[in-house]
Amino acid sequence: MPPKKAPAGPSKKTEQKKKEKVIEDKTFGLKNKKGNKQQKFIQQVQKQVQAGGHHPRQDGDKKKDEKEKKLADLREMASIFKPVQTQKVDKGTDPKSVVCAFFKQGLCTKGDKCKFSHDLSLENKVEKRSMYVDMRDNEDDLMTNWDDAKLKEVVDKKHSEEKRRPTTEIICKFFLEAVEKSKYGWFWECPNGEKCIYRHALPPGYVLKRDKKKEDKPTEISLVDLIEKERAALGSNQTRVTLETFLAWKKRKLQEKKAKMVAEEERKKSDFSKGKQFGISGREMFSFNPDLVDDGPIEEGDAAFDVYKREDDDDDNAFEFKELDLAALSLAAKEVDGSGTIASSTRLLDQATEAAKTAAAEDGAASDDENPSSSAPANDAAPFNKDLFVDLAGELDDLDLDDEDD
């Protein structure tokens, strides 16, 4: 039995009509618009519908994915073959202290002209050079390991060194200076050269000056630790701070302060009487000797003042302290009995009446003083002369005021 045929799909014309219908619905009323935005929107809708609902930028995404795939392949090839990268040296670093990367791969073609080093032993010198070992000492070079050639070389060297100055255990000053200034390392060379007879190693237990400064520096302690340390040093047999102990302490401190001020003032008085004026203010000088104020007659611009002797009254400056007892105060409190302490209800009216009577009496006394005899009024006015200003108009006309102004 032959297989069933697949149901026939819609024809191309039907699909095209549907797309045109969708475009017409989405752009209804926008075809006659001449704006740039409307026209772009219409074109975008047409492209989307004609493409079957897929965004036209999907092709661009495929190209982007292909490009990223190629870059990933290139990175994978680079990680496999590891090509030599250009070396970069920090500022201030000697290039000869760095091994050439091309030389390690066997690709350097510059030879002696290369600015980097072709000595592979430099990589073994990465470890920090010890300051307590002299590199010229050969401890492992024992006589048991020598052959005839080595023995002959040592003998010749021994006899040749006898002509030199004898060696010593004194440390080289250039070496110490380089160590103190942190300049000692694999590439440091002594100014005396390889023939330097002094030691280039520190003796065991030697402490540098810079380390001594760090040790001598006192350890800083925080404020909290200091307070806790002082509290622990006080011990347990201490007076507990209460209101009574605080008031007693405050009273004692005030008395000590007052006694100190009195003693200081007495000392200054004694010094002033002996002619010593150092540490004495001007106010204290005038208080000790008020006669200094009256130094002559008053001149123009001076201020007038009175001179009097100041009396010291210790009773005014006395401090009295009274301890409050809440229990005694609560026992002494009682309710108001109302006997002799309640104001009358008409006290305000009585006060107003008394004030009115007093004001009326004062007004009557004042009127009697101003008018002692009302029957005989005073007539102190001078007689008036009627002919005083008769010829005044003619005199004013004769005045030549314009000429004077000119």
Describe what this molecule looks like in 3D.
Belongs to the ZC3H15/TMA46 family. By secondary structure, the protein is mainly alpha-helical. Among the domains are: 12-81, no CATH class; 88-126, Zinc finger, CCCH-type (CCCH zinc finger, Irregular); 131-216, no CATH class; 226-292, no CATH class. It is extended and about 145 Å long. The longest helix has 31 residues, at 243-273. It has helices spanning 12-26, 36-50, 58-81, 101-104, 148-161, 173-180, 209-216, 223-234, 243-273, 282-288, 326-332, 347-370, 392-398, 401-405.
Tag the structure with descriptive keywords.
extended, mainly alpha, metal-binding, zinc-finger, 14 helices, coiled coil, CCCH zinc finger, zinc, zinc ion binding
**Continuous helix count:** 14
Could you give the count of β-strands? Answer: 0
Task: Specify the overall morphology.
Answer: extended
State the separation between the terminal residues, measured CA to CA. Answer: 147 Å
- The secondary-structure element order is HHHHHHHHHHHHHH
Calculate Rg over CA atoms.
59 Å
Low confidence ranges: 373-378
Blueprint of the fold:
Elements: H1 12-26, H2 36-50, H3 58-81, H4 101-104, H5 148-161, H6 173-180, H7 209-216, H8 223-234, H9 243-273, H10 282-288, H11 326-332, H12 347-370, H13 392-398, H14 401-405
Q: How would you summarize what this structure contains?
A:
By secondary structure, the protein is mainly alpha-helical. The chain contains 14 helices and no strands.
